[in-house]
Hints:
- The chain is α/β, with parallel strands linked by helices and 430 residues long.
- It has 3 domains: 7-62, CATH 2.40.50.140; 90-121 and 264-426, Rossmann fold (3-Layer(aba) Sandwich), CATH 3.40.50; 128-249, CATH 2.40.50.1070.
- The chain has 9 helices and 23 strands.
- The strands form 4 sheets. An 8-stranded mixed β-sheet has the order 7-22-23-21-20-17-18-19, sandwiched between helices.
- Strand 3 and strand 4 form a beta hairpin.
- The termini are far apart.
Amino acid sequence: xxxxxxxxxxxxxxxxxxxxxxxxxxxxxxxxxxxxxxxxxxxxxxxxxxxxxxxxxxxxxxxxxxxxxxxxxxxxxxxxxxxxxxxxxxxxxxxxxxxxxxxxxxxxxxxxxxxxxxxxxxxxxxxxxxxxxxxxxxxxxxxxxxxxxxxxxxxxxxxxxxxxxxxxxxxxxxxxxxxxxxxxxxxxxxxxxxxxxxxxxxxxxxxxxxxxxxxxxxxxxxxxxxxxxxxxxxxxxxxxxxxxxxxxxxxxxxxxxxxxxxxxxxxxxxxxxxxxxxxxxxxxxxxxxxxxxxxxxxxxxxxxxxxxxxxxxxxxxxxxxxxxxxxxxxxxxxxxxxxxxxxxxxxxxxxxxxxxxxxxxxxxxxxxxxxxxxxxxxxxxxxxxxxxxxxxxxxxxxxxxxxxxxxxxxxxxxxxxxxxxxxxxxxxxx
Length: 430
């Protein structure tokens, strides 16, 4: 049995799902933060449980070339990144293997898993940032706490967005602010600024920002005086511009408001959507975009398909999707408000050939998956930000669908998160 606070020699032989190194001492598993597979380490046991232990590196006896010096001076203290001590190729290898092992373990999937699609420059990629303010600090939370690190740099956030945060922190109104949400356009160089405060603020309190950052096209004041971890309150007021900014995705233009779901890595999203479009035959096919949001996936598919139906339960998102279709002059797409399983089964069941779904992290509901089976949908393209729920849902479909291939995408470099595009095809009846 191991002892807490004692040192042990450990070889790292694997990773956990969240990027911790895995080693063993006398067959007892030890999870080590900031470790790289293949290293031999001296590890101090920091937390000892009945069946496993956690440890930290005291000394690297034998290192590996896959270890790199993290670019960020806050790394290890901040909880925003998890893998910056790995070379980028090692990060991609870790994510590919994580997808492969999870799909096999949970979903029983033994099929083609492509290598994780990475970025040429895997830094400063986020087009959305949320920064908490408290005690004259503005930054990110320390790992596992609600203590704020007053950051001067960040290598995954948009650089100019962080400059805006540092500017706001110096303003007198900053003491009223709980959080600042900033969204930026990848192609249009436009910024939306959402100030989440305990009480209403005025544009005059923020006027200096517009002089310093003229590419801010929208300022929203969101009021949240509740004792809650929920970021946005129920009341919002436009202080400057309108409640949207504009961006492009695969040549379509989108108006994105402060509550819209929109992928946070535009460069990788275009690669992901291109892969999804290329994965199935769309000519003369009717496509359903389930969980359609503001319509970005469905509109991307529309030019290759006969017809597309988008289905979404959030009314404001449906309205945005319809406006985006009109602005892009796409006339072979229609958006429904409702649950995907109800619309597919009761309205358009006889027409649908292909379903593409991009659900939240909790995955798809069983009622929706059963509707795909019951309506004999030929092809499914399943985009997922959570490989565990993807594997669970694939298992539900196993008797009726073959998994043709799965492609991981590195939507969130320097973190353990990974996006997937899975392609499923209806099995032939015997």
